Amino acid sequence: MLAVVELGGNQFMVQKGDIIEVKKQDAEVGKKISVEALLVSDLDGKETKVGTPTVEGSKVEFKVLDQKKGDKVRVFKMKSKKRYMKNTGFRAHITQLEVTSIK
What's the Cα-to-Cα distance from 10 to each of 7, 38, 66, 67, 69, rounded to whole Å? Predict the structure, then answer.
């Protein structure tokens, strides 16, 4: 089974056993999260259900593997001929999820 889910404002195409990284979700490590799917299909693509906005009765379950910070993104600002330079960094909070089942 293949499903498209929306988590943290982004859409992800997932299968059972996939590990994805999404924006921080309010869940403890080891807990389970369930989300309704936007689209559900078999692997061949012969049987596909598209939701408006979600598929009725569909359920994708995730297991929270880790809560961590992502890679550092450098932000450098500069105005030429004005001696203005600013260098900052940013690390987003990330939740690592594993797909346990798609129904």
Answer: 6, 12, 19, 18, 18
3-state SS assignment for residue 30:
coil
pLDDT tier at 17, thresholds 50, 70, 90: very high
Largest CA distance in the chain: 62
Q: How confident is the model at residue 44 (pLDDT cuts 50, 70, 90)?
A: confident
This prediction's pTM? 0.84
How many residues does the structure list for the chain?
103
**What is the three-class DSSP state of 66?**
strand
pLDDT for position 30: 96
Name the residue type at position 79. Answer: K
Q: What's the Cα-to-Cα distance from 2 to each of 42, 52, 94, rounded to whole Å?
A: 6, 17, 23
Residue 97 CB-density burial (10 A; 0-12 exposed, 13-18 middle, 19+ buried): buried
Residue 53 carries which DSSP code? S
Tell me how far apart the alpha carbons of residues 85 and 78 are, in angstroms, rounded to a whole number.
4
